[in-house]
Amino acid sequence: MTIQPSSFARNEDEFLPYGRHAIDDVDIAAVVDVLKSDWLTTGPAVSEFERAVAYYCGTDEAVAVNSGTAALHCMMYALGIQPGDEVIVPTLTFAATANCVVYQGGTPVFADVDPETLLISVNDVEAKISPRTKAILAVDYAGQPCDYDRLQRIANKHGIALLADACHSLGGSYRDRAVGSLALMTAFSFHPVKPITTGEGGMVTTDDPQLVAKMRAFRNHGISIDHHQRRKSGAWHYEICELGFNYRMSDIQSALGISQLRKLNDRVKQRQRIAGLYNRALTSMAAIQPLAVREDVSHPYHILVVRYANESQGITRDELFAKLRNAGIGVNVHYIPVHLHPYYQKNFGTQCGMCPVAESTYKEILTLPIFPAMRGEDVQRVASEIVLASRQSTQMDAA
Ligand SMILES: *Cc1c(COP(=O)(O)O)cnc(C)c1O
Q1: Cα-flanking dihedrals φ and ψ of residue 134, to 5°?
Q2: Residue 111 near residue 90, CB atoms below 8 Å
């Protein structure tokens, strides 16, 4: 049975956000069931959600945490990242991809992106490997899986780990292998705009039981035995052997996640359909180019990013952005290259010029609204507002 996302009533001039969660009555009932149960946290729904995500991704294990950022931090901890270690990350990503390296005292090294796909540039990864490099943390930008076979060959050659930030790409696949099973460890986010949501939440998938044991302790203050084991031995005793955090996911969140995961494949199809409608609506506009999508992937379109040729319609990307926002189209820009943020410039000496492709592309990219409940009329509305925005400017030039 296909369950439709909750209707999202709006009229023509209502604000169209760039992303929106899809929650239905089945999701709500699942949360209510947990609220009436004995376990609000660390109960059966958490392990059920972990098993469901591991099964979906085709991995042996999954570790639930309370955000995508916590999932990334768990991976850095489990890998043993420490001061002096370097982790290569793409610069065109959300800052959390790099921040997690710094949490462990490591140094993020920023790689440039491929000009066609805006995914991490495999050649630049290779160029940035040093004797201190411990891992490559690839990001499936916009939802498109990276070229994991090529990245894995580089990782093997240098004896380093390949990790994935798949906060955009749950539901995607690469060469018929599911995202989540393509790297040593993979991090997911369940923030409301992401492919499925638990309100806030995250998960790490992996096949390695030792990494799993480290992450399970780390998400729970570093406590070496969990309360299930403690109850079995009838003991009050526990030990802190390593410093951890409270990164636990609740049963309330997990119940929502289990229910959401059942609908993921339908949601991905809806997103792919909307992306197809955009491609058709935008082909006639020479100034707007969709990003390249490789043939060996299934792209779940977490966000729909296009490139706008600045000035080609008499206006800049920033002016187009402002006009579309004024017209109620919730466009966005993903992302400011992380190496340009003042924190990184100040503490890691990064600067403009280090990743030229990402820096120039950043001035051209625009994220258009995409979410499962979007209708064909909404896509048409975005397309005609883009046409209108450039026409107004041509008329103003003429006047
Ligand atoms: C959303 C996101 C994160 C962080 O996830 P949270 O759940 O918000 O902590 C990390 N990396 C990328 C690429 C993201 O899009």
Answers
A1: -110, -25
A2: yes
